[in-house]
């Protein structure tokens, strides 16, 4: 591990018909802030970023920033009601249950991921220090393809 750079760990997790996503053990273990087995439900904020990508933040750390952004949106947008509706749709609360190692996403988050995937039951889950990214397998493969030259090991 490089000093000052978070450990990045990813693995595939399955999503069931009730939109509950298994957070792989390797991902859970790589995050100091993530709850351990036996913990009470843990609140997260899902940021429905791009198509097929959701970024998860601890709710406790993210709520103040969301409140500030929401207030700015209300005061500075020509159609505040529509802007607030879109804001609420993009940033959603959800819970992680350590008892079954699953993130209870709900239909809106589940279909944000599933709707653009040929593998709607499997997603790449990645620990990135202060947040978690969940992406479609297609998006993961596109990233590997896009960065393939950059990722080559130097020749000896």
Describe what this molecule looks like in 3D:
By secondary structure, the protein is of the alpha+beta class. It has one domain (8-146): Transcriptional regulator MraZ domain (Chemotaxis protein chec, 3-Layer(aba) Sandwich), CATH 3.40.1550. It contains 5 helices and 8 strands; from the N terminus they run E-E-H-E-E-H-H-E-E-H-E-E-H. It has helices at residues 25-30, 59-76, 80-90, 107-114, 137-146, and strands at 8-14, 20-22, 42-48, 53-58, 91-97, 102-104, 122-128, 132-136. Strand 5 and strand 6 (102-104) form a beta hairpin.
Strands in their spatial order, largest beta sheet: 1-7-8-4-3-5-6-2
CA-atom Rg in angstroms: 17 Å
The H-and-E topology, N to C, reads as: EEHEEHHEEHEEH
CATH class: Alpha Beta
Question: Helicity, in percent?
Answer: 25-40%
Keywords:
156 residues; 5 helices; 8-stranded antiparallel beta sheet; single chain; globular; 34% helix; alpha+beta; Chemotaxis protein chec
Question: TL;DR?
Answer:
It is built from five helices and eight strands, in the order ββαββααββαββα.
């Amino acid at each position: 591990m490089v000093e000052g750079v978070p450990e990045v760990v990813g693995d595939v997790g399955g999503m069931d018909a009730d939109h509950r996503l298994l957070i792989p053990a390797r991902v859970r273990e790589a995050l100091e802030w993530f709850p351990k087995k036996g913990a009470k439900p843990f609140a997260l904020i899902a940021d429905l970023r791009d198509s097929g990508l959701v970024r998860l933040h601890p709710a406790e750390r993210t709520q103040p920033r969301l409140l500030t952004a929401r207030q700015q949106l209300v005061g500075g947008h020509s159609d505040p009601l529509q802007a607030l509706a879109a804001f609420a749709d993009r940033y959603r609360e959800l819970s992680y249950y350590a008892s079954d190692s699953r993130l209870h996403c709900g239909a809106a988050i589940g279909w944000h991921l599933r709707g653009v995937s040929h593998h709607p039951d499997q997603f790449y889950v990645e620990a990135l220090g202060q947040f978690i990214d969940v992406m479609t397998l297609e998006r993961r493969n596109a990233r590997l393809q896009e960065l393939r030259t950059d990722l080559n090991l130097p020749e000896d």
